[in-house]
Specification:
Elements lengths: L4 H14 L56 E11 L4 E11 L6 E7 L10 H5 L4 E3 L2 E3 L3 E2 L5 E7 L2 E2 L2 E4 L2 E10 L4 E11 L3 E2 L3 E4 L2 E4 L5 E2 L2 E2 L3 E2 L15 E10 L3 E4 L2 E2 L2 H4 L2 H10 L6 E4 L1 H8 L6 E11 L4 E4 L3 E7 L2 E7 L9 H15 L7 E7 L4 E3 L2 E5 L4 H13 L19 H15 L4 H5 L3 H9 L18 H21 L1 H14 L7 H12 L4 H9 L6 E7 L8 E6 L7 E7 L4 E6 L9 E5 L6 E6 L14 E3 L1
Parallel strand pairs: 1-18, 25-26, 26-28
Antiparallel strand pairs: 1-2, 2-11, 3-10, 3-15, 4-5, 6-12, 7-8, 7-11, 9-10, 12-13, 13-14, 14-23, 16-17, 18-22, 19-23, 20-22, 21-24, 24-25, 27-28, 29-30, 30-33, 31-32, 31-34, 34-35
Helix pairs in contact: 6-7, 6-8, 7-8, 8-11, 10-11, 11-12, 12-13
Length: 650
């Protein structure tokens, strides 16, 4: 005889109780008071908790995210001479590149990067004629004004010319013999470059002020992840460089003052006795000392000096070299922990009188949180660029607004850690560079503007940017390279900053996150991490798997929509329960604010494992509780698509 309807219903309810959907006390209630059965179709196959497809761990890159015992990377040393003719303006350069093959592979050719060829009027950038990108309130133009491409007139080794092939912003060099593992080769080069007035947002000049970068042929990176990294330079996405040692001599008009990556080795030849005395005082002072005063800068502007002067710089274990020069620099300097903090700016940039203190706080903040600043000086130069970074040297505009000046100044100094110290590949993964840096900048701003409105608001900016930029159906995964991003400002800067902020505050907790990020920074200093290395380092240090987090935030453009579906507020016989649903593809932990009939309030935090069995979860309260209201995400910290389903009231 078949079961009656009543016995079948009882059997189904007992099964639902067994899988944890309903509290046992709710089984006797009307079905309108029961949670909606979960829609779990496909959840196990497409579970957000499924492992990411990462490169296999090895003795090169371990499963803990650290460099392994067989980790290797190439080394490139440069010995160069450059002359800047301001009448052109034209840069003429020559030098020797020493390439050390530390890889296990034999190389038949090398690739040179000629990023300056972005200025070539016949080049790919000119052909594409891409519009400028909007970066918040600023416009970032990747075009060139004036100038032209770089002309390489000599590529030799041992006095023998090497065959080369031009490929836009790249040049292939055929080696005279295969370069075996452990061997090295010296390549002599010579080149000229008409300096542009505006160089794709990375360098340029304003009158007699020059900010010069990407000015020499640079070796491309050959690594274990991609082999030769030969992504063309199109403006978006900056630079991926090998580490090495530099010796650079720069000859410029005698009346100019220069600053650059590296230590000034002949300061007694190019600086006055008074300037040297002031520098010595600055090296013992936490307060800024004027090495060149405003009056002296103005006087130098009006006093032409005949002839030229050569400045000699050296730098160890850096990935690039840039310099700046002007005849009328003001120069302030101070010391933090043995590091010379320097600011160079023109007499009209009055707001920059505070810039040295801003620099001092920035370097101290990042050093104490991440890893100690490793180089002898940290220098920033006021000029026409919107902001750009190089080892030991940054370019920052002369904003009059203190808040805008500090944000860009600390942002560019934050790049000394990402990517100057932790050498990730921004041509492929800008979120590991710009995003990490934007995230750490927020704490720096909070320290400098403590007690002021800007310092209180800054941590809210990434979520406010989400409301403007994260358009459903148009938002792209952060994992895409920068040249394919429609909204690089969001995908490379503020979305990863929001991601890291929530990972710190809502998933791991500040203590665990801070330790993990510092361990990642220190493990990968002067090395080339990829995304999997970051993922594994954070998981290993935190002691938890985060595949679901990386998938939702980086690999996809998933949306978050946490909802209160139904509520049973409880009565004399049955305990309350709340049916929660993750309606979007992204999952996050849940915070619930509860209010009871007796006026009592309680905040409940549920870990992300609540979604292990599907997008539905029932939270049960103790028997005897009379629920009056419930609210999801009461602090409104998550980028929730629909807040209309976040609250319930009796």
């Amino acid at each position: 005889m078949p079961r009656t309807f009543s016995s079948l219903a009882t059997h189904v309810l007992l099964c639902i109780i067994a899988i944890g959907l309903l509290p046992a006390g709710a089984a006797a209630q009307r079905t309108t008071a029961d949670p909606t059965p979960p829609e779990t179709t496909g959840w196990m196959e497409d579970s957000p908790f499924r492992p990411l497809q990462l490169p296999a761990a090895s003795r090169i890159r371990t499963g803990t995210g650290s460099p392994g015992p067989d980790y290797w990377q190439q080394k490139v040393d440069y010995r160069m001479q450059a002359r800047v003719d301001t009448a052109g303006p034209l840069l003429t350069g020559s030098g020797t590149i020493t390439y050390h093959n530390r890889s296990p592979e034999t190389l038949a050719f090398l690739w040179l990067k000629l990023d300056a060829n972005l200025c070539d009027p016949e080049g790919i950038a000119a052909q594409l004629n891409q519009p400028p990108l909007q970066f918040g309130d600023a416009v970032f133009d990747f075009s060139c004004v004036g100038g032209a491409g770089m002309t390489v007139s000599r590529v030799e080794s041992g006095g023998r010319a090497l065959a080369t092939t031009d490929a836009g912003t790249l040049m292939r060099i055929e080696l005279p013999a295969p370069l075996a593992p452990g061997d090295q080769i010296r390549i002599e080069t010579a080149w000229t470059w008409p300096l542009p007035d505006y160089g794709y947002g990375r360098m340029g000049r304003d009158g007699t002020l020059y900010q010069v970068a990407q000015w020499y042929p640079r070796l491309a990176v050959f690594d274990d992840l991609n082999g030769w990294n030969v992504d063309p330079f199109l403006g978006a996405g900056e630079f991926y460089q090998e580490y090495g040692d530099f010796q650079v001599d720069i000859t410029a008009p005698a009346g100019y003052v220069l600053t650059a990556t590296g230590t000034l080795d002949n300061e007694r030849s190019v600086l006055s006795a008074e300037q040297l005395d002031r520098l010595a005082r600055a090296d013992a002072s936490e307060e800024a000392v004027a090495v060149i005063t405003r009056d002296e800068a103005l006087a130098a502007r009006e006093r032409p000096v005949a002839g030229t002067k050569t400045w000699k710089f050296s730098a160890q274990n850096v990935r690039d070299f840039a310099f700046a020069m002007a005849p009328d620099f003001r120069w302030d300097a101070s010391d933090w922990n043995g590091i010379r903090i320097q600011t160079f700016y023109r007499p009209e940039a009055v707001s920059w009188e505070e810039a040295n203190r801003m620099s001092w706080v920035s370097i101290k903040n990042f050093s104490e949180r991440l890893a100690m600043y490793p180089w002898p000086h940290a220098t920033t130069v006021e000029g026409p660029n919107e902001g750009m970074e190089y080892p030991m040297l940054t370019f920052v505009p002369g904003y009059e607004d203190r808040e805008a000046l500090y944000w860009v100044l600390t942002h560019e100094f934050g790049h000394e850690w990402f990517p100057m110290l932790v050498g990730s590949n921004e041509r492929l993964h800008p979120w590991m560079d710009e995003g990490f840096n934007t995230f750490i900048d927020i704490d720096s701003v909070e320290e400098y503007f403590a007690g002021e409105e800007y310092g209180t608001w800054i941590s809210k900016q990434p979520l406010e940017e989400w409301a403007v930029h994260a358009e459903a159906g148009r938002e792209q995964p952060m994992a895409l390279p920068p040249t394919q991003q429609h909204d690089l400002y969001w995908a490379a800067y503020f979305k990863p900053a929001l991601m890291l902020h929530l990972l710190r505050t809502e998933v791991l907790g500040p203590a665990v996150f801070d330790r993990a990020l510092a361990e990642y920074t220190q493990a990968w200093s002067f090395r080339h991490p990829g995304p999997a290395d970051f993922f594994r380092t954070m998981e290993d240090a935190a002691g938890t798997r985060l595949d679901w987090f990386w998938r939702g935030w980086i690999e996809t453009a998933s949306r978050l929509d946490q909802a209160i579906e139904t509520v049973w507020p409880g009565d004399a016989d049955n305990a309350p329960w709340i049916h929660l649903r993750s309606r979007g593809e992204m999952i996050m932990p849940v915070e619930l604010q509860l209010e009871f009939g007796d006026g009592r309030r309680e905040t409940v935090r549920l870990p992300v494992e609540m979604w292990n069995l599907g997008p539905d979860f029932v939270y049960r309260l103790p028997a005897g509780s009379r629920l009056a209201s419930a609210r999801l995400d009461p602090r409104e910290v998550n980028p929730d698509d629909d807040r209309s389903n976040d609250a319930w009231r009796r």
